[in-house]
Structure formats: structure tokens, C-alpha cells
Amino acid sequence: CLTLVLDNPLSHALLGKLLPNLKYSLHDNSEKVRSAFLDMLIKVKAARAAKFWDVCNMDHLLARLATDSPSVSKRIVELLFNSFFPVNESEKEWCCRCVTLIQMNAMAARKFYQFAHKHTAPTNIIKLMLAIRRMLNGYIQVGGDLTDINDSNKENSTVEAPPPGHDPAVVSSLLELVVILWRSVEKALKQNEEAHKYTTAKFGGVMAKYFQVFKDERSTAPLLQMASLMPPAAVPTFSCGVLSRLRRMDPRAAPAQYCHLLDCICSWGQTADVLELVTDWLSEALPKQGKKAAKGRRVQILETVEAKPDLALVYLEYLFSHTSTQEKVLALCQGPLKQLHTILGRWKSVLYTHLSSTTEDPELPRVETALNAFTFHARLSAHLQHDLTEGRDYLLSLEDVAGWVADRVLPFLKRLNENDAEKSQQLAARITESFLSVCRDILLVGLADDTFKGQILHLCSLILLSELGYMCIPAVLPILKEVVNSCNDINQDQENPEDTSAVLLGVVANIFQKIIELLARRLKKEPEEGKQLCQSAVPGLTDFLQVAQTWGTAPLSGVFSTVFAAIVVEKRHLLQKITHPEEVIVPQSVDDMPPLSSILLSVVLKSPSVTGAFLSEVGSSLDSEVISSLTELAAVLHVLAVVKHSGRSKGDLKRAAVSVQQQIHSHAVSPVDGSDIQRVIYAASVTTLNKILEL
User: Fold this and answer.
1) Which stretch of DSSP H or E encloses residue 99?
2) Are 382 and 442 in contact, with CB atoms under 8 Å apart?
3) Which PANTHER family match (predicted)?
4) Could you write out the DSSP letters of every residue in 569-634?
5) How is residue 406 annotated by DSSP?
6) Domain finish residue from 190, 208, 230
């Protein structure tokens, strides 16, 4: 509202004194408040009501610019633009303000120039880039120290342009700003061929010298990024050695040492070369059959460069994890990509050798390398399937992998015998979980057809039927969730689901029932291990039930009946073990429930919609008279008591309580008949019921 008041010039004298009291609104927890405060400052500046830096200190504005959201940052840039990019001043002055801003707050400087192109023409951005280049050239030729900068908040104050000198932080920041500015006008540069040629020629002519002089790590990164923005001919000395540097890279190298080199290779249209290098390394590292083949392999490696499969996979990870490089890789013709896909698929044999061997073979590639290659084979299958115009060749490849996991890996998910190695058991679980993780992503992005969904659900069933299949429950639950989600997307506009979807959802409900049975069994046999397993399954259970409740009826109605039955059975068993009336205690929270019930109820109560679906199932089960004994009704009331204390779904809760009320009075226990425990259970149940009905 003060922005409106500022329209009245007579308010300026008073507001100029009052507005500084609002300065901490810049740091308000609410982004809306921060944005409104900055809008007011912009109005203060436009109306010349006061000096905005008197209302809010420049250091505070820059600190917020460095860390805040784009919405807030853009407003701060609009406010400060003339202060640090005075377009009516000389280019020398622009550089001076640039260095001043860097010295005040380097992170804020990066943000400022990231949005600067929104407030001036691309020509001015290019002029600033070239002015920074001249400043850097002057440093190389002359040198000198940074002079003190007039750090006054005064807008457009005249200061002497300092050379960047021997302060490496300022030099690095200037190089970073060139890259930021270049990227902000990259599209405009490409549309103006003459300007593009001029700019690349100017920077290309000094890049070799920059690489010689600016050798620290922070300066090297923006130099490499700058090189990736130019054609390779503009930086011939550097560009001809990039692939060699990637080939000689230490396998333990940090991402900063190779990521910008990969960016350069891809932006120069040489993606096929690095893909060939990766494929060669992965192929050479595979064990060869026979002594003669092994000998030939050693000779070939000595003649070229040692195979580095770990580094090859690291390169692939980077290439496929960033949109710009991923697009360049997938734009290649199918030949190199198919070859890479085939080579990655062969690493299953290395994994199986590790699985089946009881001792370590020093000649064999590391198990981590083989597992990463196996996972990447599945991921690459997804990318290639997405790029297919027709057919399901790569889904078929993934189904073959699912068959391999079932036939070769699951037999190792068993109890250890004397001759078994514990590492094989753990490795089998990791292989299975890695494959399921990729399959979940394939379902998530909509690449899977019904045949693929059926095959993966069949694999999930086989996993849970294996002796130690319960270890993979946290990986199976997301698969169930995504299958339900995908069927929901297909059938949400239809009154009746398609037959295939109904079959798939029926399988999902059966698998979920098996999961609950396995959790209950583990809690009974190994309580501590069972609790850990249940906790690890909580995220998957939460997501699955949230999706399942959107299907109010068949074929997923059995999901909530499974949850309800598991809770009632566990609680009934606990009540039947009571030997003294004093042990009859009505629970107040999920923590008072037995282990499995506690986990399941905590998951159900996280969402009002899931709670409502659960209580609807409680009512349906009571109305169908599936639950009839006093102990079972008491168990139901204990569940309802916990729901009552959570404050969730009061209407559904009361309807479920009414269903209990219609049955419980038939179990009234006379003072003569029945045991003391039965009488106490009945009395406690009636009291609990009455409290719920009072809601």
C-alpha cells in the first residue's frame, strides 16, 4: 500500500524518514513480503522519494541477491542495474562497476549479470564482455595490484577503473562473468553471424595466453566453459588436445577436471569420438576367453592406453545427466549407441562371475564397475527406446535382463550354507534393487507398455517368493506404485478399466498382500531386523497407499482390506495373550500399538484421503460381518481410538464406530458368564465406543 502512497509527492518528505524502519522486510520469511518490499524500493527510486540505499543498505541488498529466488533476484537487479551497469557511461566505467560489485559480493555479481540482459540490449552485453577482455589483457601485459574501490552506495558515483591485478579471486570472477554474459546473449549472437565471428575471434586470439597465465583451478573452469562456447577452430591449440586429456585422465579425477572438457567435446560436434573412447575402454576391460585372447589384449592395451572402465562409466554418467550433453549423445546415429549398448550388456557375465565365485579374482574387473555397467545398460535401454519411432526392441532387451535376474541372480537370495559367500547374498540384493530402480523410472516416464509391466510384476513376485526376497521390499513398492499410477492415467476417463489394466492391478494387490505377510513374518522371527525392514519400507508404503486410494473400488479394494486385516490380526493376537485384567489398555497413539500395526497406522494417518479410504474399508468389513468376535471388535476399537486421537476423518470415524455399535452389544458379558478378562475387554470397548460416538 505504501507503493500507492508514494504516488503522492507530498508524502515523500515524511516517508523518506519512515521507510528505513521497514528495511528488515528484505529478509522476511515470506517471499511475497520480500518481493513487495523490493517493488516499493523500485517505486521509491522511480519517484525520487528518497535514496533507496538509505532505506536499505547495499550490503543487505547484495546478500539477498546472492541467495534468493529468481523472482526476488530479478527485482534486486532491476533496482541496482543503473548502479552497476550505467549504460550512459563509458565502457571503462562499466568495468569499474563490475570489479566493485565483485569485491562487494562475488556471488551477487554472478546473479546480477545473469539477469542483466533483461535490462539492456545484447550489444551492450557484448561490449561489456570485450571491455573485460581488454582489462584482462592489460593485466597480462602490465600487471599491478588492485587499487581500493570507492565502495560508496551512491548511485552512478565516478570511480577510477582499477586493473584486476594480482587478486586471483577478482580475475576468476571476471572470467566467470564473461561466460555468464556470453550465455545470456548466446542466442542473439548466433542470429548475428558477423557479431558472433567478431566476438569469437577476439576471445579466441587470447585464449592460449589466458590458459598460460590463469592456471588456478577457479580460473581454469570458466576458461574451459568459454572455449566450449566457441568453435574449435577459434581455439586450435587447446581443442586439438582435449580428447587426449580425457584419455589420459586419472580414473580418480574429480568431476571438475573432466566435466568442462566433455562439454567442449560435445559442443564442438565431437561427441562420437568420446563415445568411441568410452566403448573401447568398456570393451577392452571385459575378460577375454582363452589365453591367446588374453595375450592379445595385453599387447593392444600397451600399444594404446590402459583401459579405464570406471572412468568410462563416469564419463557416461556426466554425458547422460546433463540435458545439453545428453541431447548431443542421443542425436548420434544408432550405430555407435547400439555398439555401446551391446558392450554394456556383456558386463552381466562379470557380475555373474562375482556372484558365483567364493574367492576374489585379481584379474577380474571390480564388482562396483560391473554393477555400474549393468545399471547403465538398463538406463541406456530406456533412452534408446524413447528415441525409437516404432517397435519395442529395447523394452524386449530389458525383459531379457529381467529373465536373467530371475534365473541367475535370485538363486543367490537364500540363507547362507557352509560353502556360500556372504558377499554373493548382498550382491544379489544390490543387483536386483538396481534393476528395479531403473524399471521404476521407466514406468514413471511412461515408456512401459502392458507387456513390460506384466514382466516386471512377474519378476517382483519371484523376488518375494525367494528365501531372502523380503530384503528387496523397499525396491518393489515403488514398482507397484508406478504400475497403479500408469493404469490410473490410462483409465481415469473410463467407467470400466480395460481388461489388461484390471489384470495388472489384481497382480499388484496380490503382491502387496505378500509384502504385508513378509513384514509380519520378519517381525515375528527377527523383531529387530523386522523393525528396520518396516522402517525402510515406510516411504514406499506411503506413496503406494496414496495412489491406491484413488481407486475406490476393485481391483485395488483389496489393498486396504489387507492393511486392515493385518492390523486386526496382530492386535487380536495380543489381546488373546492377556492373562490379567490390568493388561487391558486402550492405546492412545500409534506408538502404543504392536510393531506392524504401528507402522501401518502411522502410514495411513499421514494423509486424510488415505485415512478416509482405510476407515471406509473398516466399515465395509464390519457391515459384512467378517469381524464378529469380541476380541476382534475390541481390536477394531483400539484402531479407531488411535485414529480419534489423531484428529483425522471424524465423519468416517463415527460411521465406523456405528458399525461396531451394531455388533458389540451382542457380546455383553454377564457377571456370571465369561472370564474377568472378557468383562474388562467388553467394558473398555464400550467406554471407547461411547467416546468416539460423542465426536
Assistant:
1) helix 91-104
2) yes
3) CONDENSIN-2 COMPLEX SUBUNIT G2 (PTHR16199:SF4)
4) HHHHHHHHT--SGGG----SSGGGS-HHHHHHHHHHTT-HHHHHHHHHHHHHHHHTT---SHHHHH
5) I
6) 230
Q: How far is it between the farthest Cα atoms of the chain?
A: 109
* 291 occurs within a structural domain: no
**Residue 518 counted as domain residue:** no
Residue 314 and residue 309: Cα distance in Å, rounded?
9
Q: pLDDT digits over 236-272, tens only? A: 888 889 999 999 999 889 998 999 999 999 999 999 9
Please indicate, yes or no, whether the overall pTM of this predicted structure exceeds 0.90.
no
Asked if 636 and 568 touch (Cβ cutoff 8 Å), the reply is yes
Q: Cβ distance 281 to 311 under 8 Å?
A: yes
For residue 538, give Cα distances in angstroms to 386, 474, 480: 32, 8, 14
CATH number at residue 652: 1.25.40.90
Distance CA 298, CA 301 (A): 5
Range(s) of the domain holding residue 658: 552-694
Residue with cell 564442438: 268
Q: Which residue type is seen at 105?
A: N
Residue at which a domain ends, from 207, 230, 253 = 230
Q: Is there a cis peptide before residue 70, judged by omega within 30 degrees of 0?
A: no
Instruction: Burial-class residue 383 by CB neighbours within 10 Å (0-12, 13-18, 19+).
Output: middle
Total structural domains within the chain: 2
- Report which of 472, 469, 502 is spatially closest to residue 484, judged by C-alpha positions: 502
Cβ–Cβ < 8 Å for 432, 444: no
Domain-located, residue 391: no
User: What is the DSSP-derived secondary structure letter of residue 405?
Assistant: I
Please report, as a single letter, which amino acid is at residue 380: L
| HEC secondary structure over 633-654 | HHHHHHHHHHHHHHCCCHHHHH
How far is it, in rounded angstroms, from Cα 471 to Cα 414? Answer: 11
Residues 81/40, Cβ–Cβ less than 8 Å:
no
Q: What is the pLDDT of residues 585-644, one digit of tens each?
A: 778 888 888 899 999 999 999 988 899 888 888 888 888 877 778 888 888 888 888 888
Q: Answer whether residue 213 is part of any domain.
A: yes
Residues in the chain: 695
How far is residue 130's CA from residue 199's CA, in Å, rounded to a whole number? 8
Q: Are 492 and 452 in contact (CB under 8 A)?
A: no
Q: Are 81 and 63 in contact (CB under 8 A)?
A: no
H-assigned helices in 105-249: 106-115, 122-141, 168-184, 186-191, 193-213, 217-228, 236-239, 242-248
